Amino acid sequence: MNKIRSMPPAVGAIQDWLGPRFLSCLILCACLGFTYGAWRGAADDAERQMQGDFDFRARELLGAIAARMQTYIQVLYGVQGLYASSDFVDRAEFRHYLSLQQMAQHFPGIQGIGYMRLVPRAQRDAHVAMVRREGFPDYAVKPGGERELYAPVVYLEPFDGSNLRAFGYDGWYEPVRRATLERARDTGQATLSARLRLVQDGDGRERAGFLVALPVYDNQRAHATLAQRRETIRGWVYAPFHMEDLMAGLGGVAERVLDLEIYDGDAVAAARRMYDGQPGAAAGLARSMHRQIDIAGRRWTVLIGAGPGFDRSAGDKPRILAWAGVLLSFGLAVLTWLLARSRADARAALRQADLLTAQRRAGEARFRSLYDNAPVALWQQDWSAVHAALAAPELAGVADLADHLRLRPELVARLAAQVRIVGANGAARAQAGAGDAAAALSLAQNFDAAALPAFARAVVALAQGAQLFACEGSFVRLDGVARQNELTLLVMPGHEHSLDFVIVTTLDITERKRMNDELVLLATTDFLTGLPNRRQFMARLDDEHARLQRDIDSCASVLMLDLDHFKTINDGHGHAVGDAVLRHVAALMLDGHRKVDTLGRLGGEEFVILLPGTDLAAAGVLAERLRQRIAATPLEVAGGSIAVTVSIGIAAMRRVEAGYDGVLVRADKALYCAKKGGRNRVETEGGAELGLAASS
Ligand SMILES: Nc1nc2c(ncn2[C@@H]2O[C@H](COP(=O)(O)OP(=O)(O)OP(=O)(O)O)[C@@H](O)[C@H]2O)c(=O)[nH]1
Question: Which atom in ligand 1 lies closest to the alpha carbon of residue 566?
Answer without folding.
Answer: 20
